[in-house]
Amino acid sequence: ARSPDRNLLARLTADSDPRVIEVVLSNPRIVEAQVVKMAARRPARGDILEVIARHKRWVIKPLVRRTLILNPHTPLKTSLRLLSLLNRWDLKDVTQAADLNPRVISAALRILETKPTKK
Protein backbone atom coordinates (compact mmCIF):
# COMPACT_ATOMS: atom_id res chain seq x y z
CA ALA A 1 0.00 0.00 0.00
CA ARG A 2 3.03 2.25 0.32
CA SER A 3 4.22 1.35 -3.16
CA PRO A 4 4.89 4.02 -5.80
CA ASP A 5 3.26 1.67 -8.36
CA ARG A 6 0.01 3.44 -9.34
CA ASN A 7 -1.57 0.25 -10.75
CA LEU A 8 -0.99 -1.59 -7.49
CA LEU A 9 -2.31 1.39 -5.55
CA ALA A 10 -5.47 1.42 -7.70
CA ARG A 11 -6.03 -2.29 -7.01
CA LEU A 12 -5.49 -1.81 -3.29
CA THR A 13 -8.25 0.82 -3.11
CA ALA A 14 -10.70 -2.09 -3.52
CA ASP A 15 -9.21 -4.11 -0.64
CA SER A 16 -11.64 -5.20 2.08
CA ASP A 17 -9.21 -4.84 4.98
CA PRO A 18 -9.62 -1.49 6.82
CA ARG A 19 -5.92 -1.57 7.80
CA VAL A 20 -4.89 -1.74 4.15
CA ILE A 21 -7.27 1.11 3.29
CA GLU A 22 -5.78 3.20 6.12
CA VAL A 23 -2.31 2.80 4.61
CA VAL A 24 -3.58 3.43 1.07
CA LEU A 25 -5.21 6.68 2.18
CA SER A 26 -1.89 7.83 3.63
CA ASN A 27 -0.01 7.15 0.42
CA PRO A 28 1.02 10.53 -1.08
CA ARG A 29 0.32 9.22 -4.59
CA ILE A 30 -3.38 8.61 -4.06
CA VAL A 31 -5.57 11.32 -5.52
CA GLU A 32 -8.98 12.66 -4.53
CA ALA A 33 -10.75 10.97 -7.44
CA GLN A 34 -9.61 7.56 -6.16
CA VAL A 35 -10.83 8.33 -2.65
CA VAL A 36 -14.19 9.54 -3.98
CA LYS A 37 -14.49 6.31 -5.97
CA MET A 38 -13.79 4.31 -2.79
CA ALA A 39 -16.38 6.34 -0.85
CA ALA A 40 -18.99 5.88 -3.59
CA ARG A 41 -18.59 2.12 -3.95
CA ARG A 42 -21.81 0.15 -3.46
CA PRO A 43 -22.27 -2.09 -1.73
CA ALA A 44 -19.60 -0.93 0.65
CA ARG A 45 -18.44 -2.06 4.04
CA GLY A 46 -19.26 0.43 6.77
CA ASP A 47 -15.87 -0.01 8.42
CA ILE A 48 -14.09 0.95 5.18
CA LEU A 49 -16.24 4.07 4.83
CA GLU A 50 -15.56 4.92 8.46
CA VAL A 51 -11.80 4.69 7.83
CA ILE A 52 -12.18 7.22 5.01
CA ALA A 53 -14.34 9.49 7.18
CA ARG A 54 -11.77 9.45 10.00
CA HIS A 55 -8.75 10.10 7.77
CA LYS A 56 -7.56 13.67 8.40
CA ARG A 57 -6.21 14.17 4.89
CA TRP A 58 -9.44 13.20 3.15
CA VAL A 59 -12.32 14.16 5.46
CA ILE A 60 -11.50 17.83 4.88
CA LYS A 61 -12.30 17.45 1.18
CA PRO A 62 -15.90 18.57 0.50
CA LEU A 63 -16.43 16.06 -2.33
CA VAL A 64 -15.24 13.17 -0.16
CA ARG A 65 -17.58 14.20 2.68
CA ARG A 66 -20.50 14.60 0.29
CA THR A 67 -19.86 11.22 -1.30
CA LEU A 68 -19.64 9.50 2.08
CA ILE A 69 -22.93 11.00 3.25
CA LEU A 70 -24.72 10.13 0.01
CA ASN A 71 -23.62 6.51 0.29
CA PRO A 72 -26.39 4.61 2.11
CA HIS A 73 -23.81 2.12 3.42
CA THR A 74 -22.00 4.79 5.44
CA PRO A 75 -22.70 4.18 9.14
CA LEU A 76 -25.52 6.42 10.40
CA LYS A 77 -23.36 7.93 13.15
CA THR A 78 -20.70 8.89 10.60
CA SER A 79 -23.17 10.48 8.20
CA LEU A 80 -24.80 12.49 10.98
CA ARG A 81 -21.39 13.68 12.22
CA LEU A 82 -20.38 14.95 8.77
CA LEU A 83 -23.68 16.58 7.79
CA SER A 84 -23.01 19.93 9.44
CA LEU A 85 -19.89 20.30 7.30
CA LEU A 86 -21.81 20.30 4.01
CA ASN A 87 -22.75 23.42 2.11
CA ARG A 88 -26.37 24.29 1.32
CA TRP A 89 -26.29 22.73 -2.18
CA ASP A 90 -24.98 19.43 -0.89
CA LEU A 91 -27.49 19.43 1.97
CA LYS A 92 -30.30 19.89 -0.58
CA ASP A 93 -28.98 16.88 -2.49
CA VAL A 94 -29.02 14.85 0.72
CA THR A 95 -32.65 15.79 1.39
CA GLN A 96 -33.60 14.49 -2.07
CA ALA A 97 -31.69 11.19 -1.89
CA ALA A 98 -34.30 8.46 -1.74
CA ASP A 99 -31.96 5.68 -0.64
CA LEU A 100 -30.62 7.33 2.53
CA ASN A 101 -31.64 6.65 6.10
CA PRO A 102 -34.62 8.90 6.97
CA ARG A 103 -32.72 10.19 10.01
CA VAL A 104 -29.97 11.52 7.74
CA ILE A 105 -32.52 13.26 5.54
CA SER A 106 -34.39 14.83 8.46
CA ALA A 107 -31.11 15.97 10.05
CA ALA A 108 -30.11 17.58 6.74
CA LEU A 109 -33.47 19.38 6.62
CA ARG A 110 -32.96 20.72 10.16
CA ILE A 111 -29.47 21.95 9.33
CA LEU A 112 -30.75 23.61 6.14
CA GLU A 113 -33.38 25.49 8.15
CA THR A 114 -30.75 26.96 10.47
CA LYS A 115 -27.84 27.41 8.05
CA PRO A 116 -27.50 31.06 7.06
CA THR A 117 -27.73 31.91 3.38
CA LYS A 118 -24.86 33.82 1.86
CA LYS A 119 -25.67 37.27 0.59
Which properties best describe this structure?
single chain, 119 residues, mainly alpha, 64% helix, elongated
Q: Give the biggest sheet.
A: none
Secondary structural class: mainly alpha
- N-to-C series of helices and strands: HHHHHHHHH
Instruction: Quote the distance from N terminus to C terminus.
Output: 45 Å
In terms of DSSP E residues, the strand content is under 5%
Low-confidence stretches: none
Q: What is the approximate shape?
A: elongated
Integer-rounded radius of gyration? 15 Å
Q: Helix proportion of residues, in percent?
A: 55-70%
Mean of residue pLDDT? 93
Count of DSSP-assigned helices: 9
Question: Would you count the extended β strands for me?
Answer: 0
Describe the structure concisely:
This protein has 119 residues and is an all-alpha fold. It has helices at residues 6-12, 18-26, 32-40, 46-54, 56-59, 62-70, 76-83, 88-95, 102-114.
Describe this structure in words.
- The structure is a single chain.
- By secondary structure, the protein is mostly helical.
- 64% of the residues lie in helices and 0% in strands.
- It has 9 helices and no strands.
- The N and C termini lie far apart (45 Å).
